[in-house]
Design a protein that fits this description.
Elements lengths: L1 H10 L3 E2 L10 H7 L19 E4 L1 H5 L6 H5 L36 E5 L2 E2 L19 E7 L4 H4 L6 E7 L5 E11 L6 E12 L4 E12 L15 E4 L2 H4 L6 E4 L2 E3 L7 E2 L7 E3 L5 E3 L2 E3 L6 E5 L14 E13 L4 E17 L4 E7 L7 H10 L3 E7 L7 E20 L2 E22 L1 H8 L1 E3 L6 E3 H5 L18 H7 E26 L2 E20 L19 E20 L6 E13 L3 E13 L4 E12 L3 H5 L3 E9 L4 E9 L8 E12 L7 E18 L2 H9 L3 H4 L2 E3 L5 E6 L1 E22 L2 E18 L5 E3 L18 E10 L3 E10 L2 E2 L11 E2 L2 E14 L5 E9 L26 E9 L1
Parallel strand pairs: 3-6, 33-37
Antiparallel strand pairs: 1-2, 2-5, 3-4, 5-6, 7-8, 7-47, 8-9, 9-18, 10-11, 12-17, 13-21, 14-15, 16-17, 18-19, 19-22, 20-21, 22-23, 23-26, 24-25, 26-27, 27-28, 28-29, 29-30, 30-31, 31-34, 32-33, 34-35, 35-38, 36-37, 38-39, 39-40, 39-41, 41-42, 42-45, 43-44, 45-46, 46-47
Family: Belongs to the TonB-dependent receptor family.
Organism: Sphingomonas lycopersici
Subcellular location: Cell outer membrane
Length: about 900
């Protein structure tokens, strides 16, 4: 549906901030031209923002067919689908959500608004899951693709995505659709209904909307033929011959230290594994074997164990809004939104290595005798938890917000808009069937009770009432349900947030220059955000990670923000021989954060229209992102992730505990954009825009990756070693991660858009092409080490900057009449190198992918007043083009390429 969304977006006449819509006698074009787009706080007829902005109108969204509008927006060249249900399905804090990410700078650096106002955050990081925005009534979306902190506030480092409610809608409209893939999964449906009417002699307007959607997801990524158990592993030949690649791609990547039923990794019994019912057999080692590491083939546990490819989600939302004209000059407005979403998915499988004592009661007698003969009292035992402790993630999120305000005239050219908003979000996540590590260690130490001859936990001999149930892990399915119940529990993460916002904006034209009136906007905002994080008693234990995943530590925190801004548009030339018009856009904002102090942002923009065919624009701005409450005060949460540990020459999953840093300061970004817009008179209805952007973020907030911390510690960095905790067996038990202002991010590139629209016969043909070239996306770390992400497919962390191809583009042809519409879209996502670091691979480049999408609509019933019922359908990725095999992040770069495959969607929509 994402591609259908995009096909609809680019197949219709777009509304650009670059220029007004090309002249056209078509009624649709006239309707489109009425939309005012500024991307600025200044509201002036004919004003065009110097910052590049793309806008999508109501009709575009209505015929998109996407379950989530984010699916459409993520196809725009400036957007990156970094955080979607298919790209972060294994990251519980974001799983199942859609978060906007402009320029690939990370979702925390894109500000999401509703009707130009802040919405209550859906996570303690202060961001909005667009799944919880009522979308049935979205009347358009503005995407500001440049720094906009001076106009909109903090977090707009990469830009702004503003969802606009269709507040003037009158009538009834709705849709019902369903979809499925070639693999008989990712089944989904969407139902929406909207109603709008005037009342009180047209002085009032009522708007109601409801929407429900569900997607059963893709519960096992290994079902895709391109996935399987492929991965990248260490090449042992590199130890002997450094000219050999350090890493190699393999089709059957397995752990050499763990097996589904367990394998002995040390001593006289090394190489013995356990099959069904605890039977013993030799463990077959595969190729590319390194000591206690990974291998290709053999009997080891698959490294790409079954994982969720697309998170299954359910959601519904409702909206009620009203406006009432109190006097001809003053209008009161109020609205209320409510939304809820649910997620239920399998947790992340992993392997563990334990120390087993020689007198373990479940160990076959023959093996105990062999250990005794060798004088060995214990051995290392590697085991998958696939059959006894994977667990599940169950999440329910609910959000609501109420807004009320007044807007109107103050006399002359002056207007105002004053509002108060209050909202709450509650997100409850349960990690069910979660292994309690301390209990598992007790249960694994099973011995014979000399008094009864039965099998008990060793700890029970000295503490008979401790409730420990002995655990047998020798062989798949050997663990009893009683033991599983004893060693597992439910880890809880409970987020509760509330936000109050008071807004005031005043606009007017105080005086004129020789070129026309000067327009000004000024105002202020007060924002108060409270966050309460609670968990279960086990997780809340200070400084201890008792569960395998989860272990959220409770905390409460508050952020208060006061800010004031002013923006002015000053005309310098109008209808001169050398300029059709020349405007300067100046803006500044002062923001005071209770936690991180006072910061200033500003912008200077220039619009220079030489004539009706050529216009130049440029903007220079200072933008900021203040640290969010989670980055400042989080008491800790434990997640699971893989590291390569050179000290033990092993690759394995370890717990990683995140925490906050109260000494963080706001990030600061310098942004420059410049471009030209061409609407040549000799080719009517053709528009071309070319824009260059350059963004430099200093003091970017980030945590060192777990792998970086391990590498530094193993290289002798004592400070990094303080963050690494190892067990008695030398393997890492836990890594502490905390954010600091140490990074610098630099990105620049060029965006090109071309649009041509021409009436043919009874309809209109739309042709549009978009191309984005990312020249640079560099991340500089604490030691001035530079990671080049442009032209790269790697994503080292799921929720931060990562690999972005140099080239992305699309081409669309769409033909529409009053009775039908048909569109074809081709999308190109470039390839690039696979690894971002100094490691060498056997092959280190993948080619890009081209996706072809087909969409169509047929009107089956029409009324005399313009109402209609229409059937529509779409085929996404019509040629079922698989993503490239990279080896990182679940066999491919999920944040870049289509991992779902060919999808079919069909439905009906009506509008009366």
């Amino acid at each position: 549906m994402a591609a259908l969304a995009f096909a609809a977006l680019i197949g219709a006449t777009p509304v650009h901030a670059q220029q007004a819509a090309p002249p056209d006698t078509d009624a649709k074009a006239s309707e489109t031209a009425e939309i005012v787009v500024t991307g600025s706080q200044v509201a002036r007829a004919g004003f065009v923002s110097p910052t590049p902005l793309t806008s999508v109108n109501t009709d575009d969204i209505l015929r998109v067919g996407a379950v989530n509008v984010a699916d459409a927006l993520n196809q725009l060249p400036s957007m990156k689908p970094s955080v979607t249900p298919s790209s972060v399905s294994n990251l519980s804090k974001l799983a199942g959500g859609n978060y906007m990410d402009l320029r690939g700078l990370g979702y925390l650096r894109t500000l999401t608004l509703i009707d130009g106002k802040r919405y209550v955050p859906t996570t303690p990081e202060g961001v909005i899951n667009t799944n919880l925005i009522p979308q049935a009534l979205i009347g358009g979306v503005e995407v500001v693709t440049g720094g906009a902190s001076a106009a909109y506030g903090s977090d707009a480092v990469a830009g702004v995505v503003n969802f606009k409610i269709d507040n003037k809608f009158n009538g009834v409209r709705g849709s019902l659709q369903g979809g499925i893939t070639d693999h008989n999964d990712n089944r989904n449906y969407l139902a929406s209904l909207a109603f709008g009417t005037k009342f009180a002699g047209d002085r009032g307007h009522l708007l109601l909307g409801f929407e429900a959607a569900e997607n059963n997801g893709v519960k096992d990524g290994n079902r895709r033929k391109w996935a399987g158990n492929r991965s990248i592993i260490v090449n042992p030949a590199n130890d002997i011959d450094p000219s050999q690649p350090y890493l190699v791609h393999v089709n059957d990547a397995r752990a050499s230290y763990a097996a589904p039923g367990g394998v002995i990794n040390s001593g006289v019994l090394k190489g013995i594994q356990f099959g069904p019912n605890g039977t013993t057999m030799p463990f077959r080692y595969g190729n590319y074997l390194t000591q206690d590491n990974t291998m290709d083939g053999g009997d080891g546990d698959p490294l790409a164990s079954p994982y969720v490819l697309v998170a299954p989600t359910k959601r519904w939302s409702a909206y009620a809004g009203a406006t009432y004209e109190i006097t001809p000059a003053i209008t009161a407005y109020a609205n209320f939104t409510y939304a809820t979403s649910r997620l239920n998915e399998r947790s992340i499988p992993s392997d563990d290595v334990f120390t087993i004592h020689a007198d373990n009661a479940y160990l076959p007698a023959s093996l105990r005798n062999a250990l005794a003969a060798a004088g060995e009292t214990s051995f290392a035992f590697g085991r998958s938890l696939e059959d006894y402790g994977v667990g599940a993630i169950k999440q329910k999120a609910t959000t609501w917000q109420g807004v009320t305000g007044l807007r109107g005239g103050l006399g002359g050219s002056w207007t105002f808009d004053a509002s108060v908003a209050f909202g709450k979000t509650h997100s409850l996540t349960l990690f069910t069937g979660d292994v309690i590590k301390s209990r598992r260690l007790l249960a694994l130490d099973a011995v014979i009770n000399p008094a009864t001859g039965g099998i008990v936990c060793r700890s029970t001999l000295t503490d008979p009432t401790n409730g420990c149930m002995p655990l047998n892990l020798f062989g798949v399915g050997s663990a009893s349900q009683q033991a599983i119940n004893y060693i597992t529990g439910t880890s809880v993460r409970d987020w509760r947030q509330s936000q109050q916002v008071v807004d005031l904006v005043i606009r007017g034209e105080p005086f004129s220059t020789w070129a026309g009136p000067v327009s000004i906007a000024f105002g202020g905002q007060y924002r108060n955000l409270n966050v309460d994080v609670t968990s279960d008693p086990i997780s809340a234990t200070p400084n201890v990670s008792l569960f395998r995943v989860g272990n959220v530590k409770p905390y409460s925190a508050r952020e208060a923000v006061k800010e004031g801004f002013v923006e002015a548009v000053i005309p310098l030339a109008q209808d001169a021989s050398w300029a059709k018009n020349l405007d300067v856009d100046l803006g500044g904002r002062i923001t005071d954060y209770r936690t991180s102090g006072t910061v200033e942002t500003w912008k200077v923009g220039v619009n220079y229209a030489v004539n009706s065919s050529i216009r130049f624009r440029a903007t220079r701005s200072r933008d900021i992102r203040a640290p969010n409450i989670n980055e400042l005060f989080a008491a800790g949460q434990t997640l699971l992730g893989g590291v390569t540990d050179s000290k033990t020459n092993a690759t394995y999953n370890v717990s990683q505990t995140t925490g906050g840093n109260p000494y963080l300061k706001p990030e600061k970004a310098n942004t420059f954009t410049a471009g030209v817009v061409l609407t040549p008179s000799f080719v009517p209805r053709l528009s071309i825009s070319i824009d260059y952007y350059d963004i430099k973020v200093k003091g970017a907030i980030a945590s060192l990756t777990a792998q970086t911390i391990v590498n530094r510690c193993n290289s002798g960095d004592a400070a990094s070693c303080l963050l690494v905790r190892r067990g008695d067996d030398g393997r890492i038990n836990n890594i502490l991660l905390a954010p600091v202002n140490f990074q610098q991010i630099i990105t620049n590139g060029i965006d090109v858009e071309a649009n041509y629209r021409v009436p043919i016969g009874a309809g209109v043909l739309d042709l549009r092409g978009l191309v984005s070239y990312v020249n640079k996306l560099d991340l500089t770390g604490q030691d001035n080490d530079v990671t080049h992400f442009a032209g790269n497919t790697d994503q080292p962390v799921l929720d931060g900057p990562g690999g972005t191809p140099h080239w992305k583009g699309s081409a669309t042809a769409s033909y529409a009449t009053d009775n039908y519409r048909f569109g074809v879209t081709g999308r190109y996502i470039g390839g690039g190198v696979i690894t971002r670091d100094d490691f060498t691979l056997d092959w280190n480049h993948v080619n890009g992918r081209v996706y072809v999408d087909l969409s169509g609509e047929l009107t089956v019933f029409k009324t005399s007043n313009g109402g209609k019922i229409a059937l529509f359908g779409v085929i996404l990725n019509a040629f079922d083009n698989d993503p490239p095999f990279t080896g990182y992040q679940f066999q491919t770069a999920r944040q870049l390429y289509d991992v779902i495959g060919r999808q079919y969607t069909a439905g009906v929509r009506f509008n009366f």
